[in-house]
Design brief:
Layout: H1 2-11, E1 19-20, E2 23-24, E3 26-27, H2 38-51, H3 61-80, E4 89-92, H4 95-104, E5 115-119, H5 128-137, E6 140-144, H6 154-160, E7 165-171, H7 183-192, E8 196-200, H8 212-215, E9 219-223, E10 234-238, H9 240-245, E11 256-259, E12 264-266, H10 280-294, H11 298-317, E13 322-325, E14 334-339, H12 344-353, E15 356-357, E16 359-361, H13 366-371, E17 377-381, H14 388-403
Parallel strand pairs: 3-15, 5-6, 5-7, 7-8, 8-9
Antiparallel strand pairs: 1-2, 4-10, 9-10, 11-12, 13-14, 14-17, 16-17
Helix pairs in contact: 2-10, 3-10, 11-14
The structure holds 4'-deoxy-4'-aminopyridoxal-5'-phosphate.
Residues 94-96, 123, 125-126, 171, 175, 200, 202-203, 223, 419 line the site of 4'-deoxy-4'-aminopyridoxal-5'-phosphate (PMP).
Amino acid sequence: AEQQALQQVRKQFPILDQQANNSPLVYLDNAATTQKPQRVIDSLNRYYTMTNSNVHRASHTLSAEATLQFEQARETLAQFINAGHSKEVIWTRGTTESINLIAHSWGSTLRPGDEIILSTLEHHANIVPWQLLAQRTGAVINVIPLQDNGDLDLAAYKRLLSTKTRLVAVTHVSNAIGTINPVKQIIALAHAAGALALIDGAQALPHFNVDVTDLDADFYVFSAHKLYAPTGIGVLYAKQALLESMPPWQAGGEMIAKVSFTETTFNDLPFKFEAGTPNISGAIGFATAIKWLQAQDRRLLEQHETHLFNLALDGCSQIKGWQRIGSPEKSVSLLSFTLAGQHQQDIGYILDQQGIAVRTGHHCAMPLMQALSLAGTTRASFAFYNTRDEVNRLVEALDRISHAQQVSIPTHQPQTDDD
Ligand code: PMP
């Protein structure tokens, strides 16, 4: 019965049912972006067929309907992460824009010598905005190192915290190696030192529920497209008092209350941070994905993901020269690895020839790769719509690659930096 339920879930993702390079597509790049269920695709179609109109302005019926759906979507997202109020949910383009908003708005209050703590496990999106901010303000960045087992060194973190620390910005789950960080503890320690905490939840919410109130996160950011929803939309959650105290970032329509050429007053939350026409269909599609997800048996889906992960781990562990990179425990269903004597780009190319989509390279985490003394890894990231058969195909393909004497690929695929 469980297998049937899982098959039913998979059937709702039409893109999975196709050939790639004359083999059935095996999509194992879910950490880069997930596929969308038909329900979400339909909601975009329905919005543009029936409702399209600008929000929050016109006096007409369509606009009222679009506004209603857009604001209901915000409500759905607020409930999904257990925010105190939907005002605390700001729509952005995604995780990257959420972090940039914080770095520009909240960050403008930093003074020379103020300290920001990041971790070695961060995605570039949670590094570069802080570097640019440090250059603008004279703030200083400190980095939590890794322990030998690849987990964050919490003892070192405690030593980095001081009265100078203004912000601790850490990822909930590593996109490169899958580690789940103890963010509740990290946040509590930040607060004890008088600092705020920002959690990058891009890779967490796709795998488990998150309660921002229970975590006591000051900022929590994530992207829709990794959560079975459209690209171009995401969320900045922040505590209301904090958002009230922050200056606006982008300026224009929607974010104002009153404008004259001498003075402008700003709109209330959440609109103060949403300049211009927002991604209306994206927000509606996002809420549709969340409602779809909530209607599924999430316990079964999580169990299945864990099962796929263990199957892949067991299978790959038998392969000569295969090495897993990442935390021994506490990981989401994502397997980062190297294969002795084989370059990851070649591995990615050969897998693609067999229809198997994985990600290779530094995974937008170059400082982590440096800390691990690796040029990159191959990453297979699983979603609940993947099957045991697909995992077996991956393991068999990797086993064949491990036996190949020497692989020579004439031209490398261009290395992109998109996740
Ligand atoms: N942080 C993490 C941990 C991520 O995995 C990603 C996307 N790979 C990002 C930030 C950036 O997200 P986006 O590109 O959707 O803005």
